């Protein structure tokens, strides 16, 4: 696995890929990917996969051809690291090394200054009001040109925006409704920990307009206090009438966070798994912003929600789950690099696609915690599939609605790292697989065909990194059959990315918004 997690040079000048097969003529646009790609700066090295400096990649698909380019995101974390030839900010699993340019007294007094937050936005690519941003689990957004990948602007929504809430962090997985409103969950720490659900309305633009602040016009729809301490969270769920937020017991010690610089700790070392606490679901009414129901269940850990929808009586929630937060340790680079392809996940639980059922309350009551109802086997969740992560759906067609198909990556066999693509039928509990030896696919992205009427009518695209002499490529699968229809092999090294999006050349490729709410 060492080959998969090496620093990769940026490829600023676009290079043409070699096509095998036929790319659908309607597939025109750019697959933008984001993820860590630089793991060493001078003599210093990052410790965790999530810590590496972020690189944006662009697969431009046009008239059956593909060009590829990549560029390191010019964040302050990158610029300062390059200038000092060393790590400039503490990251998730990497503490800030002592500054060799400071004498012993300057170093001592610097320990009493709270650490600056890193702006290494290396997790996802999001769009708001027509602008494209790199994002992470932080208060930072970095705007960039989706063609040249050059950074254009940077925003710290905690300090430079006079909004109603000073935000400590937000998720890199916002939701968007059919009117173009963008929703997110942000943490504020003033007067205690609060979770805030925010709404950014669409802003009409005309040619020549300067880019607005990404949070211009933000509304805070709901504010609620956690039952436990500040927890790690990465995503949330949205249905037509409700938001659902999960509070997992992977909690942050705020005092440890404030003193991490003095103690030489990373962010991860300021967190712990509290096995005595349950996992909690908060159900928030989208119209009133009130918490209308609270449920608790046996604790679990999750990064990613898949989808949620309503029936007459329940909110159905599908989540990729782990029994605890041990998975975070699997992603330390010393582990990833020292294990073979078929050994890296041994001793760690596979992610499971679970379905939870949350009764819709007849009257709002947020004062008491209720247990979730059980299924026939006595558990309060169903397992729809074992071994799937980085989930995606046909978002505009299916988000918040009854759906049938989800796409993800998973291990081909127990002990493997995420080395296969999966299409899961959540109704039939069946799956289709794409796998090729010594190939590591990224999160799959579904692109609907123009005028598509069925949920899986379109293609799946994924950037695939090859090891042991195999070249890397962009893979195109038929959405229905899950069979390969084309690949575009890239003549240069490529980084293993985390998340991204397809930015279509034509709005027609955004897909249909399904209005019907009947079960599929």
From TrEMBL:
Binding site for Fe cation: 173, 234, 304, 499
UniProt keyword annotations, A-Z: Iron, Metal-binding, Oxidoreductase
InterPro entries: Carotenoid_Oase (IPR004294)
Domain of life from the UniProt record: Eukaryota
Cofactor(s), by name: Fe(2+)
One Pfam family in the UniProt entry: RPE65
Molecular function GO terms recorded: beta-carotene 15,15'-dioxygenase activity; carotenoid dioxygenase activity; metal ion binding
Any one Gene Ontology BP term: carotene catabolic process
Cofactor: how bound: Binds 1 Fe(2+) ion per subunit.
Family: Belongs to the carotenoid oxygenase family.
Full protein name: Uncharacterized protein
